[in-house]
Design a protein that fits this description.
heterodimer; A: 284 residues; alpha/beta; Rossmann fold; globular; B: 315 residues; 2 domains; seven-stranded mixed sheet; 13 helices; 14 strands
Chain lengths: 284, 315
């Protein structure tokens, strides 16, 4: 039991590290999307550092599990996770969004080891993930496909085309995760274009739906496991999250959707993350 | 004029896919509720496990095809040209072109000869839309035999590709052996001539060949080029035509803006050529319902329009 708690705390510690990378990257890039990057951290950490079958030394292994970041503006989180896994040098993170550098503002599959799909234009990633899952079934491979969509992203009609197709084709090798942080650029998701009931909508499209605290790694681990045991239907995991999670003044603050921290905010954010990191380290 | 043999390029597409399916097990086919019209149904019947009916959801079809390609599959995604390009431009842009995905978008029912369905279904912008995308190869085969060969080459050549054919039967231009050396990016001189070069693509190559015969009777020697590849354009052949005939007429069942005529005019303008030049195609307008022949007549794409334009140009 103690061992298990320690294991989870180690993953929490990775999550803090990823958050520090995100703040550093966005501060240096002087642009990018803090809010939706921070809300996605625990799910991405759980996938890359616990759940998925993948090998950074062999990023094109045909049998690897795949992760598609459909909400491409959370690229910093994906990049930081890939770098920490060893897909590329962590130093690359310091050159996010800079000319002549690898890490583009949004993920590109042709440039960046470990990136499965080019995203950024919202609504495509679930369809792309469906294609991978359908190819896996055709080839009788046992890899799994994971895709993260933003909650605001599900305004896009293509998401619902893909939702219908995934259940029609019984893609039980596909797990989607929705980053339910309730905020999109123009405001609260329920005021911009109502999404509730998210659970009922996906359920009506033929998906198995799970709901977890999207910042609780233990809950995410369990949900991913349950999802991988489902037969004949895809699973949607609703990650109840907080936009800007982990930085007090960014939490639930829509001003940080697409605005990077200034110097003062950067220092404050790093200080907060340092405190959390030290507490976690002390507990190990 | 002797009566021409006819064959349908759509049948050629479906049959070729079916044949290739037996040889190359990486080929998968996606369609959006039009498989009876695009003829992908022939593949579907023979290889049901590799055929994916995507329903009336073209955006999802294109991105899904890209997902397949990322796993080493060779997806052919088919629909009518209107739905296979304009409707899904963003999906093609990001998931296919930007991602350099090995996706083959094969559209039928291109151009105004779709006929009675009217302007909503008459795609006259697709060549432009696809040509402007980096990494994209753009093809418009002219007859059934060439369609067959182009489909084979698409399957065998890595990279994002778009091809469009028309709905109707097309006169037979080629025998199978004529096409064994066909290359993507190399136009074909179908008829040689010295007074003018008529550079045409797709359905209009036949009209150009008819025009060649009529012009011969009037003592005009017209070269006809089948420019089946719009991108990458055979620039060498364009400049050769400019040099040797000093007069070029482009003909396409497409808007005059940005397609074959656009591509040829860019080459000519930048080469500093003083070639006499005209683009034939649909002017900057939407057309209407009608029989294909009526539409060609009204919107300036009949054989006699080609003949008249040539005569005006060389005067």
């Amino acid at each position: 039991m103690k061992q298990h708690e320690e294991y989870i705390r180690k993953l929490d510690l990775i999550a803090v590290k990823i958050r520090k990378h995100i703040i550093e990257m966005l501060y240096r890039a002087k642009s990018g999307h803090p809010g939706g990057s921070l809300s996605a951290v625990e799910a991405i950490v759980t996938l890359y550092f616990h759940h998925m079958k993948h090998d950074p030394k062999n990023p094109t292994d045909p049998n690897r599990d795949r992760f598609v970041l459909s909400k491409g503006h959370a690229a910093p989180t994906l990049y930081a996770a890939l770098a920490e896994c060893g897909y590329f040098d962590v130093k690359e993170l310091l050159h996010l969004r800079q000319i002549n550098c690898m890490l583009q503002g949004h993920p590109v599959r042709t440039h960046i080891p470990g990136v499965e799909a080019s995203t950024g234009s919202l609504g495509h990633g679930l369809s792309f993930a469906n294609g991978i899952a359908m190819a896996g079934k055709l080839d009788k491979k046992d890899y799994r496909v994971y895709v993260m969509v933003g909650d605001g992203e599900t305004n896009e009609g293509q998401i619902w085309e893909a939702a219908a197709a995934a259940s029609h084709y019984k893609l039980d090798n596909l797990t989607a995760l929705i980053d339910r942080n309730f905020l999109q650029i123009d405001g609260n998701t329920e005021e911009v274009l109502r999404l509730e009931s998210v659970r009922d909508r996906w359920s009506a499209f033929g998906w198995y739906v799970l709901e977890v605290n999207g910042h609780d790694i233990e809950e995410i681990i369990d949900a991913l496991l349950i999802a991988s045991e489902q037969k004949n239907q895809p699973t949607m995991i609703i990650l109840n999250t907080v936009k800007g999670k982990g930085i007090s003044f960014m939490e639930n603050n829509i001003d940080f959707h697409g605005v990077p921290p200034n110097e003062m905010e950067y220092n404050l954010a790093m200080k907060e993350l340092d405190t959390v990191q030290k507490a976690l380290e002390a507990s190990l | 004029m002797n009566k021409k043999m006819m064959a349908n390029p759509r049948d050629a597409y479906g049959e070729t896919l079916m044949e290739l399916g037996g040889k190359n097990h990486d080929i998968v086919v996606l369609d959006a509720d039009l498989s009876k019209s695009t003829k992908t149904i022939l593949f579907a019947k023979k290889y049901p496990e590799r055929f994916f009916e995507m329903g009336i959801a073209e955006a999802n079809m294109i991105s899904t095809a890209a997902g397949f390609a990322s796993c080493g599959k060779i997806p052919f995604a088919s629909s009518f040209a209107v739905f296979a390009t304009g409707r899904v431009y963003d999906q093609i842009r990001i998931d296919v072109a930007y991602s350099k995905s090995n996706v083959k978008i094969f559209a039928t029912h291109g151009g105004i000869s779709v006929g009675k369905d009217g302007a909503s279904h008459q795609m006259i912008e697709d060549l432009t839309l696809m040509r402007v995308l980096p990494n994209m190869t753009v093809l418009a085969p002219s007859d059934a035999a060439q369609t067959r060969r182009i489909v084979e080459l698409m399957a065998a050549t890595e990279g994002p590709m778009y091809a469009r054919i028309g709905r109707a039967n097309a006169s037979v231009l080629y025998k199978k052996e004529d096409l064994k050396d066909l290359k993507i990016g190399e136009g074909i001189i179908v008829k040689d001539g010295s007074d003018v070069s008529i550079i045409a693509c797709g359905t209009m190559v036949n009209q150009a060949v008819d025009a060649h015969e009529k012009l011969l009777q009037d003592g005009v020697s017209a070269r006809v080029v089948d420019m089946h590849t719009i991108k990458p354009l055979d620039e060498r052949l364009v400049t050769k035509c400019a040099r040797e005939t000093n007069t070029i007429l482009t003909v396409e069942e497409h808007s005059v803006i940005g397609g074959l005529g656009g591509a040829v005019s860019e080459v000519l303008a930048e080469s500093g050529s003083s070639t006499k030049f005209k683009r034939m195609g649909v002017q900057d307008m939407f057309c209407e319902s009608g029989e294909p022949e009526e539409l060609f007549e009204k919107y300036g794409l009949s054989t006699s329009h080609i003949v008249n334009n040539v005569k005006k140009l060389i005067r």
